[in-house]
Write a structure and sequence with these properties.
The complex is a heterodimer. Chain A is mostly helical. Chain A is 76% helix and 0% strand. Classes of the chains: A mainly alpha, B mainly alpha.
């Protein structure tokens, strides 16, 4: 499915640009995007190192395990396929917390770390495990308590009340998250009844 | 809401203070442990480069070609058929862009907020939608890519269902609250 989507976006983009007589746009877009991809990754190195370092300390001190225990009952319900002492619980919880606080920079390192831990417990190395799909469903639909960026944009645009959309945002995210958890459950049951 | 803003402001300084201090008293060699963990930062960041480049190129070529306008026109009859106000159709480009690209979606949301005004219905709807969903497609490809997963199974379907529900929930709640 990803192969197809990737191809369709690329090919369709080129065809449309050509039809609009703007074929040079393709070259510019492709080269710029390639550059941006590396910039983003390189930009991540610093924060990645910082958070993975702090997390390693937290792990050694037993803090990650305490955090996992605190959220244990809820998280174990969401991830029935993981062992109760799975090493993935710590980074999963930290990723979701960082997401909720809107700390996007900190969320990515924890998220990638969680994927590595989940992959270590994955029986089929090239196929997504149940737990990975649940984690990504939670991650992409996760509640942001403070949508800081958009509040900034509203402020700049001269809104009388820039934060008034927090309530509606939380409601919409809660709906999306519920839908994600339900859809994940239904698809999982359908594949492995 | 002030409390939440304060929590967000203090979260990182608190973690950076508390974790090393606590660990030190638990006899963890804090500096060496930090370096050990930080070592993986470079590896992980470099590992996601091919996935980032691949996805960004495809998305950028698609978006810059103006394909979004065409897609909006295709989706219009569907939105009208389910009885949505024609004004709401202005949200379609944002709704389509949101799962693909974070910066692209922010650009469209900013433009909508300025065009219609931050305190207009469309401005509030764009703000709510931008804040409530994530770049599903992008996150999936990078996260799966970083550990070498090739078969996503039903992950994309779950993510997109959540996005669609998020879109309609946003439209509904913004209409209800701000009418």
């Amino acid at each position: 499915m990803v192969n197809l989507i990737w191809l369709i976006m690329l090919a369709l983009g080129i065809v449309i640009s050509t039809l609009r007589g703007n074929v040079s746009q393709v070259t510019e877009s492709a080269l710029k995007a390639a550059e941006l991809g590396v910039e983003v990754a390189i930009g991540l190195i610093g924060v990645m190192s910082l958070w993975l370092g702090i997390m390693h300390i937290a792990e050694k001190a037993g803090l990650v395990q305490s955090l996992a225990k605190l959220f244990g009952p809820l998280i174990k319900k969401l991830f029935p396929s993981l062992k109760p002492d799975s090493r993935a619980f710590g980074p999963i919880i930290m990723n979701l917390c960082a997401n909720m606080l809107g700390l996007g920079n900190a969320a990515t390192p924890f998220g990638l770390k969680a994927m590595q831990e989940l992959q270590n417990e994955n029986p089929k190395q090239d196929e997504a495990s149940d737990a990975m799909i649940t984690f990504l469903a939670l991650n992409t639909s996760c509640i942001t308590i403070i949508p800081a960026t958009i509040i900034g944009v509203r402020m700049k645009a001269g809104s009388a009340n820039p934060t008034e959309i927090i309530g509606t945002t939380i409601f919409a995210t809660a709906c999306a998250m519920t839908a994600a958890v339900c859809a994940d459950y239904i698809f999982r049951k359908r594949e492995r009844p | 809401m002030n409390i939440i803003t304060e929590v967000a402001k203090w979260a990182i300084p608190f973690i950076l203070f508390f974790v090393p201090v606590y660990a030190y008293f638990r006899k963890v060699p804090v500096y060496e442990t930090f370096v050990e963990g930080a070592e993986n930062g470079f590896k992980t960041a470099v590992k996601i480069i091919p996935f980032l480049v691949g996805m960004l190129v495809s998305i950028r070529v698609f978006v810059d070609s103006g394909a979004l306008d065409i897609l909006t026109n295709i989706l219009k009859p569907f939105f009208l058929a389910i009885g949505l106000d024609p004004d709401i159709l202005n949200i379609i480009p944002l709704a389509v862009m949101r799962p693909l690209s974070g910066s692209g979606a922010l650009g469209i949301a900013t433009q909508l907020i300025h065009q219609f005004g931050p305190d207009s219905f469309m401005g509030r709807l764009a703000s709510t939608l931008q804040g409530s969903t994530d770049t599903t497609f992008f996150v999936l490809t990078v996260y799966f890519g970083s550990v070498g997963i090739k078969k996503y199974r039903y992950a994309l379907k779950v993510g997109l269902i959540a996005d669609i529900v998020g879109l309609f929930a946003s439209i509904w709640i913004v209409s209800k609250v701000f009418g």
